[in-house]
Amino acid sequence: MKLDGRRARFEALAPVVIDAVRRYLARRTDPATADDVLSETLVICWRRLDEVPADYLPWAYGVARRCLANAERGRRRQARLVARIAVLDPPRGVLDGPVPPDGELAAALSRLRDEDAELLRLWAWEDLAPAQIALVLGISANAASIRLHRVKQRLREELGKSGPPGGHEQSREGRRP
Predict the structure, then answer these.
(1) What local confidence, expressed as pLDDT, does residue 82 receive?
(2) Helical pair 56-88 and 3-26, crossing angle rounded to 10 deg
(3) What sign has the CA pseudo-torsion 125, 108, 104, 106?
(4) Alpha carbons 170 and 160: distance in angstroms, whole number
């Protein structure tokens, strides 16, 4: 692909990718990490522009997801190093700050496996269809549909553990006791 064609294609997809990936990352990490991951995602989109499929948004989500995983691994390595240093040279007078309260949904999501919570976020927050989720996660569309169905049920169960149902009792009709 000629440079002018590459540039035109990138300029066409970049604004959509920036908006979508920024929202995707804002729900998963802090603003500074989100900016770094977005930048890295755009660099990868430019370098691999010839490999970007026509339905590029799920592909970009997959790239951002892997870049975020790399950033989180780096953050964990840094935290382990800080912990080792703190043992050798403890900081003076560190106070713990208040922990913001989590809602029922956040608590229920935190009790799910990370992979399951991510699948739900892709479906609910990014408004992706199971076939698009499959592209992001690198699985088949059928597997994405099945996992989505199962994780929605697990989320319902987790939300049921949180307290009384919020409005309507769930129908038991058609279910075995």
Answers:
(1) 81
(2) 60
(3) negative
(4) 10
Please tell me the predicted confidence (pLDDT) of residue 150: 96
In the chain, what are the domains?
A: 1-91 (1.10.1740.10), 102-163 (1.10.10.10)
Report the chain (177 residues): mean pLDDT per 10 consecutive residues: 85 95 94 95 95 93 96 92 76 48 77 90 91 93 95 90 58 53
* SS percent in the chain: helix, strand, coil, step 5: 70, 0, 30
As given in the structure block, the two tokens for residue 108 are: 């229920």
Those residues with Cβ within 8 angstroms of residue 65's Cβ, 6 or more apart along the chain or in another chain: 118, 136, 137
Please state, in angstroms and rounded to a whole number, the distance separating the CA atoms of residues 34 and 21: 9
